[in-house]
Structure formats: structure tokens, C-alpha cells
Amino acid sequence: MGRSFAVLCARPGEMGPMFQKQHHTALELAGQLILLLSAIVALIHGLKIYPPELVYVTKTTPVALLALLALINIKSVDHAILFFALAISALADYLIAQPTVDAFMNGLLTFLVVQIIYIFLFLKNRLPAKDVTPMRLRLASLMWAMTILAIFVMYPDLDSESYNVVIYSFSLTAMATAALISRFPFTMVGVGAVLFYISDSLIGAQQFMNAPDYLGYIVWATYYVAQVLITLGVLIGKGPNRGIRY
Fold first, then answer.
1. Which residues pair with 126 in a beta bridge?
2. Would you call 240 exposed, middle or buried from its count of C-beta atoms within 10 A (0-12, 13-18, 19+)?
3. Can you give the pTM of this predicted structure?
């Protein structure tokens, strides 16, 4: 009661920090709930414990909620760019879930836009050349070697889709490379981008090679974790944690 009376009697300038703290606490709580709900729906989709008619919901909602998480935490241009990348990712997830022959290619071309946005975001925040460690360069080189090898192996079976797949493969590898040389936390954004690369590489194996059915579980798990890590890494930023606690 005494504290409430003190708040009411305080001058406007004195009330700002208190309300600001309450606002940040509410924002963090909302973010935690959004992230938890996103993870729950992602688990439901990954384990396929949903009615078939809800596949569009379970496929699209997890990353759509990550986009919402980015939206309510926008404090910079980087955060806004992240929001657009996640929103378009959710659209791509929806397109891939469509029961049409063009679903895969429509989703792939939409994800191409996502990769371009991520490349721009990561290069905008690139490290100085002297700070790029040999380990990051070796990891990037390994991904480029694997991409080129995969294209040579799969190319005879791609037919008319070959050009789109090749362009996407190069953009995916470029995105992961850009993430590895960015200022964002390596253990989040760098690892997330590599997981994104692994997930989409496995999708290629599913589509164009004789891959086991269980690969689909790994594809979804690596993709979702990748988007979560990239989201949190970009929101936390290039320096110490700035009040975002998840």
C-alpha cells in the first residue's frame, strides 16, 4: 500500500524507470511464453502427433511465432531484418506443406529470398578480416566443398529443376559462410546457420536421392533449432546481453 501511494505521488520524471522496468519484465515474460509455445508446436509437428488437416498450422506456426518474438523485441534495423527473414520463412514453410507438385519448388524459391535477407544481415555485421579465425574459415571451406560435391552427384537427376536447386545451394552456403564471419554470437548464429545448412542439405537428399524416411525428423529438428538459435543470437546482439533473457 505504501509503495503504491509513493508511486502515485511521484513526479512524472521519477516514474519513468519504474514503468520501464515493468515494461521490460512484461516483454521478457511474453517472449518466454512465445518461445515456449513455438517449441511445443514444433515438437508436435516433429513427432507428427496432429490431425493431417492441421499440417499447415503445425508446419507454419513455430517459425511464425519466432517472427512474432522478433517483432515485439525490435530495437534496431538488424531486428527488423530478422523479423522479415522469419516471416518469409514461415510463408515458405506453408508453401512446402501444400499438397501440390510445385510445393517443393515454391518453398525453395521463397527460402531463397530468406537466404538473401540473412546474407545481407550477416554481411552488414561482418567481422573485420583480422578477427575471422581459421576455424571459421575451415568450417566455411568444408561446407563449400560439400555443396560442390553434392551438386555434381545430384545434377544428373535434377532435370529442369537443376538451375533453381544449384542457385539455392550456393545461396544457402553463402548464408552459412556470412553467419560464420559475422559479429553475432558464434555459438548461436554461427551454429544455427550451420544447422540450417545441414537441414536443407538433408532435404536435398530426401528429394533427389534414396534417403531413409527417418531423415525427415532430423530435417525438422535441425531446421527449427537453427531458426531459434539465429533468432536469439541476433536479438541478443553483438555485445553483452542487453536485457533480453530467454
1. 182
2. exposed
3. 0.86
